[in-house]
C-alpha cells in the first residue's frame, strides 16, 4: 500500500497571465492532518480546487490512493472518497439540516444509503446539531452552518477531507468543536485532512505536517513547528517569528 | 353582472392553473440551470399537435394524451439537454439564448412544414359542454384542463420537495459546485430537470389545445404568458408559480370581459414591464432565493 493517500507532484495552474500555482509538490499521509498556510492570494484555495477536480492542473499530477486524478470530475472524486468544505459555508439554505446531510447519499445503493442515513443522524449529534435537525439551514448561525457543512462532508465516510478556512470568523466554542471532531475522525476512521487556515497556532497544534505557500510556490514544508520558524515563511507570510 | 363576474373569476382560476403549468417548466429550467429556454413555447405547440395527432389518427382522448405527453416530452427534453444544452450551458448566457432561439425557429418551421400555418382545434364530445355553478356557467373542458394542470403542478411539487432526487436538483440550483463536490452527478440530474421542464411544456400544450385553437406561428404568444408567470412568481418555486398563474389567469379573463380585446395584451405586457422595473433585479437572482 502506498504510504501517502494523496501525492501532489509539481502542480502548476495559471489563469491567463496570473500564475496561481507553480510546481507545488507535497504528500498527504494516511490518518493525518496536513495544515496549509500562506498569505491571501498564495494559491491555497486554487490548490484545493485542483485536488478535488474543480480545476484541472496545467502541469504536474495529483495522485489519490495510487491513481492519477487527471480529467476526473468533482463528483467522481467525491465517489472515490474526496470531500470538502468551502471558505464560506455553502449549505443548501432552503433544505432542512437533515436534508442537507442526505444530499450526498443520492447515488448510493439501498443498503449503503440506509447505513449512511444512520451515520447522518450520528454526525448531527457528533457536531452538536441534533436539536436543529428539522430547521431550515438558513435559520442556522454562521458557526452552525460551518458545523453542518463539516458534518455533510463526512456523511459518506470520505478518506480525504479538504477544509478551506474552517475556523474563520467562528465562535471559539465552534472552533473547539471542529478541532475535536477533526481529531476524532482521524483517530477513529483513519481519514486524512488538508486544512487551509490563517489561525496558525491552532493549525500548528492540530497538524502532523504543514505546507506554506507563498506566491504559488512551496516556501516550506515539514514539521509544523519547523515550518513556522522557517525564514521564508516568516518573510513571506507571518511577518515575525511565531514564538 | 354578478353572474358574469362569477364566471370570469372561475374561468380565470381555471385558466390560471394552466398558465401556472406553462410557467412551471420555464421557471424550473431558468431557476436551476440559468438557461433562458425561449423554445419553451415551441414545445407547448408540439404538445398541442401531439394530442391533435393522437386524437385524429387513433381517437385518443386529450386527457389520455396529457398523461402520455409526460414521458414522451420528458424523453424529448432529455435528448435536447444532452445534445444541445450541454454544448452551450457554460459558454455564457448569450450563446444559450441564441441556441434556444434557433431551436424555437426550427421547431416552428418544422411545424409549418408538417401541419401548415392553418389553425387546428381539438374538438371532443365534451368540448362544448358546460354546467352551472349558481348563476355562472363553466365549461367542462376548462375544468378538466385546469384539474390536469393542478395535478401536474402538485406532482412537480411533491417530486421536488419529497424525493431525494428532487431535493438534490434544488441543491444544484442553489450551489452547483457544492453539490458536485458531494458526489452529485450534476449532468444526470440536469438531464432529469430539463426533461421535466419540457414535459411540463408538452402537457401544458395538450391542455391549451383542449381550449384554444393552435398553429405553429401562434406558439410565440405563449412564451410571453410563460414569462409573465415567471416574472410575477419568481423562479424555481412551484408554489409561487401556481399563485402567479392564478393572478395572470384572473387578470386576463377580467381584461377580456370588461375591456376591448386589443387592450388585453397591452395590459399584460405593461404589467410585465412594471414588475421588471420595480424588482430591479435579473431573473436569475430571483431564482436563487426561491428554489
Question: Can you tag this structure with a few keywords?
Answer:
heterodimer, A: 243 residues, alpha/beta, Rossmann fold, six-stranded mixed sheet, four-stranded antiparallel sheet, 9 helices, 26% strand, globular, B: 291 residues, mainly alpha, two-stranded antiparallel sheet, 12 helices, 78% helix
Strand and helix order of chain A: EEEHEEHEHHHEHEHEEHH
CATH architecture of chain A: 3-Layer(aba) Sandwich
Q: Which quaternary structure do these chains form?
A: heterodimer
Q: According to CATH, what is the class of chain A?
A: Alpha Beta
Number of domains of chain A: 1
Roughly how much helix do the residues of chain B carry, as a percent range?
over 70%
Low-confidence stretches of chain A: none
**Which radius of gyration of chain B do the C-alpha atoms yield?**
19 Å
Give the neighbour order of strands across the main sheet of chain B.
1-2
What share of the residues of chain A lie within helices?
25-40%
The shape of chain B, in one word, is globular
Please report the number of helical segments of chain B: 12
Strand content of chain A: 25-35%
- Name the shape of chain A in a single word: globular
Would you mind describing this structure in some detail?
- The complex is a heterodimer of chains A (243) and B (291).
- Chain A is α/β, with parallel strands linked by helices.
- Chain A has one domain (6-91, 158-242): 3-Layer(aba) Sandwich (Rossmann fold), CATH 3.40.50.300.
- Helix content of chain A is 37%, strand content 26%.
- Chain A has helices at 44-51, 74-79, 97-102, 110-126, 142-154, 172-189, 200-206, 224-229, 231-238, and strands spanning 4-15, 18-29, 33-37, 59-64, 67-68, 82-85, 160-164, 192-196, 209-214, 217-222.
- In chain A, the strands form 2 sheets. In chain A, strands 6-7-8-3-9-10 form a 6-stranded mixed β-sheet, sandwiched between helices.
- In chain A, strand 4 (59-64) and strand 5 form a beta hairpin.
- In chain A, helix 4 packs antiparallel against helix 5 and helix 5 runs parallel beside helix 6 (172-189).
- The longest helix of chain A is centred in the C-terminal third of the chain and has 18 residues, at 172-189.
- Chain B is mainly α and 291 residues long.
- Chain B contains 12 helices and 2 strands; from the N terminus they run H-H-H-H-E-E-H-H-H-H-H-H-H-H.
- Chain B has helices at residues 2-33, 40-58, 62-88, 93-115, 140-162, 164-174, 176-180, 186-211, 219-233, 238-258, 262-279, 283-290; strands at residues 130-133, 136-139.
- Chain B has a two-stranded antiparallel sheet with strand order 1-2.
- In chain B, a hairpin with a 2-residue loop joins strand 1 and strand 2.
- In chain B, helix 2 (40-58) packs across helix 9 (219-233) and helix 9 (219-233) runs parallel beside helix 11.
- The chains are: A alpha/beta (243), B mainly alpha (291).
- At the A-B interface, helix 2 and strand 6 of A face helix 6 and helix 7 of B.
Amino acid at each position: 500500500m502506498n504510504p501517502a493517500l494523496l501525492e501532489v507532484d509539481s502542480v502548476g495552474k495559471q489563469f491567463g497571465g496570473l500564475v496561481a500555482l507553480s510546481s507545488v509538490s507535497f504528500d498527504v499521509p494516511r490518518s493525518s492532518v496536513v495544515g496549509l498556510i500562506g498569505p491571501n492570494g498564495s494559491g491555497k484555495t486554487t490548490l484545493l480546487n485542483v485536488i478535488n477536480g474543480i480545476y484541472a492542473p496545467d502541469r504536474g499530477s495529483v495522485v489519490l490512493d495510487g491513481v492519477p486524478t487527471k480529467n476526473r470530475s468533482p463528483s467522481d472524486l467525491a465517489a472515490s472518497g474526496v470531500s470538502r468544505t468551502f471558505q464560506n459555508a455553502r449549505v443548501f439554505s432552503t433544505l432542512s439540516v437533515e436534508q442537507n446531510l442526505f444530499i450526498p447519499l443520492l447515488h448510493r445503493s439501498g443498503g449503503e444509503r440506509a447505513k449512511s442515513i444512520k451515520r447522518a443522524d450520528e454526525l448531527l449529534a457528533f457536531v452538536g446539531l441534533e436539536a436543529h435537525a428539522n430547521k431550515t439551514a438558513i435559520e442556522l448561525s454562521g458557526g452552525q452552518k460551518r458545523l453542518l457543512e463539516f458534518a455533510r462532508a463526512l456523511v459518506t465516510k470520505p478518506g480525504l477531507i479538504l477544509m478551506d478556512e474552517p475556523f474563520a470568523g467562528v465562535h471559539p466554542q465552534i472552533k473547539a468543536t471542529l478541532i475535536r471532531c477533526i481529531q476524532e475522525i482521524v483517530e477513529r476512521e483513519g481519514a486524512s485532512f488538508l486544512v487551509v487556515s490563517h489561525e496558525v497556532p491552532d493549525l500548528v497544534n492540530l497538524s502532523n505536517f504543514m505546507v506554506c505557500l507563498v506566491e504559488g510556490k512551496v516556501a516550506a514544508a515539514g514539521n509544523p513547528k519547523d515550518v513556522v520558524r522557517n525564514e521564508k515563511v516568516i518573510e513571506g507570510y507571518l511577518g515575525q517569528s511565531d514564538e | 353582472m354578478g353572474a358574469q363576474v362569477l364566471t370570469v373569476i372561475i374561468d380565470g382560476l381555471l385558466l390560471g392553473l394552466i398558465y401556472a403549468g406553462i410557467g412551471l417548466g420555464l421557471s424550473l429550467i431558468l431557476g436551476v440551470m440559468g438557461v433562458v429556454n425561449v423554445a419553451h413555447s415551441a414545445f407547448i405547440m408540439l404538445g398541442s399537435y401531439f394530442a391533435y395527432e393522437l386524437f385524429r389518427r387513433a381517437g385518443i382522448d386529450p386527457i389520455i394524451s396529457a398523461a402520455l405527453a409526460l414521458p414522451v416530452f420528458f424523453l424529448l427534453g432529455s435528448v435536447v439537454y444532452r445534445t444541445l444544452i450541454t454544448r452551450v450551458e457554460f459558454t455564457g448566457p448569450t450563446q444559450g439564448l441564441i441556441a434556444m432561439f434557433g431551436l424555437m425557429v426550427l421547431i416552428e418551421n418544422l411545424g409549418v412544414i408538417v401541419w401548415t400555418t392553418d389553425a387546428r382545434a381539438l374538438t371532443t364530445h365534451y368540448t362544448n359542454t358546460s354546467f352551472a355553478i349558481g348563476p355562472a356557467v363553466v365549461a367542462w373542458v376548462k375544468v378538466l384542463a385546469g384539474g390536469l394542470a393542478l395535478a401536474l403542478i402538485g406532482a412537480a411539487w411533491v417530486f421536488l420537495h419529497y424525493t431525494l432526487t428532487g431535493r438534490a436538483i434544488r441543491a444544484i440550483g442553489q450551489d452547483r459546485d457544492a453539490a458536485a463536490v458531494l458526489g452529485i452527478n450534476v449532468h444526470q440530474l440536469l438531464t432529469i430537470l430539463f426533461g421535466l421542464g419540457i414535459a411540463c411544456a408538452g402537457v401544458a400544450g395538450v391542455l391549451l389545445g383542449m381550449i384554444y385553437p393552435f398553429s405553429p406561428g401562434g406558439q410565440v404568444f405563449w412564451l410571453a404568458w410563460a414569462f409573465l408567470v415567471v416574472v410575477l412568481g419568481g423562479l424555481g418555486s412551484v408554489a409561487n408559480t401556481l399563485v402567479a398563474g392564478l393572478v395572470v389567469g384572473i387578470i386576463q379573463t377580467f381584461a377580456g370581459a370588461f375591456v376591448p380585446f386589443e387592450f388585453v395584451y397591452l395590459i399584460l405586457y405593461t404589467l410585465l414591464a412594471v414588475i421588471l422595473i420595480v424588482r430591479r433585479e435579473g431573473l436569475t437572482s430571483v431564482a436563487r432565493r426561491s428554489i
